[in-house]
Amino acid sequence: MSEQTIVVDGEEVSVREDTAKAYRGVNWMQISIGAFVVIAAVLALIFLVGTVTNDVDVPVTGNSNVNAR
């Protein structure tokens, strides 16, 4: 197998190709999960701000025709 160089704690380390791929895979997984959490938090914040600042005036009538036949 070929050797590849990865950076661990600021030092370059020569490792096997499969170990380097696994190392990069773990890094991408952590970045992806972090991005998912950030996107979910932003969407939740937008939703919560939207519900708090919702100023729609709904007219209240005492004579509703919901059950009219």
Task: Walk me through what this model shows.
The chain is α+β, with helices and mostly antiparallel strands and 69 residues long. The chain has one helix and two strands, in the order ββα. The protein has one helix spanning 17-52, and strands spanning 3-8, 11-16. It has a two-stranded antiparallel sheet with strand order 1-2. Strand 1 (3-8) and strand 2 (11-16) form a beta hairpin. The N and C termini lie far apart (80 Å).
Characteristic terms for this protein:
single chain; 69 residues; alpha+beta; two-stranded antiparallel ribbon
Brief digest:
The chain is built from one helix and two strands, in the order ββα. By secondary structure, it is α+β, with helices and mostly antiparallel strands.
Distance from N terminus to C terminus (CA atoms, Å) equals: 80 Å
Shape: rod-shaped
By DSSP (H or I, 4+ residues per run), the number of helices equals 1
Helix content: 40-55%
Parts with pLDDT < 50 across at least 5 consecutive residues: none
Structural class: alpha+beta
Number of E strands:
2
Kindly state the mean pLDDT as a whole number?
Answer: 85
Radius of gyration over alpha carbons? 27 Å
Q: Can you list the strand order of the major beta sheet?
A: 1-2
Query: Biggest sheet: strands, sense, closure?
Result: 2 strands, antiparallel
- List SSEs in N-to-C order: EEH
Strand content: 15-25%
